[in-house]
Design a protein that fits this description.
Layout lengths: L8 H27 L1 H8 L8 E9 L5 E11 L2 E6 L10 E4 L3 E8 L2 E8 L5 E6 H11 L10
Antiparallel strand pairs: 1-2, 2-3, 3-4, 5-6, 6-7
Length: 152
Amino acid sequence: MQSHSDLNPAEFAVIFPIFFLALWCGIILLIGQIGGWAVLARRFRLTLPFAGQSWGWQSARMRWSCNYGGCLRVGADPTGLYLATFFLFRAGHPPLLVPWPEVTVSRRKVLFFTYVELRLGREEQIPFVINQKLAERVRGAAGASWPVEPVS
């Protein structure tokens, strides 16, 4: 005898994708909250297309070690730092343009690697940690607008 709670394959084929999509969106939204993206979006949401230089498939770490591994498009121009996630990670992650006066820069060396920490938002102070190679690209695109780095 079959119970009422058993799903036949046709029902499963409908319910599972809906469940998976809801779970995926929920996790992505949670990461945006924990990592600080949602906080930044309140002030720095970009509504127009970004016209500066940008680089896809980039990685960064944000607040509370939220890792964005290979899912970012990072860009820069003299007006600010551009951040966007790829389409599959867009829930709770609208594109951002953080003006350079709202960014501070510091460098950290861990073993043989140098990382650059950008603090985003004068009030928010959300860490955005990237590798040195990406930081140099961003610095080149920002030009004279790049924040002054402290002397170490």
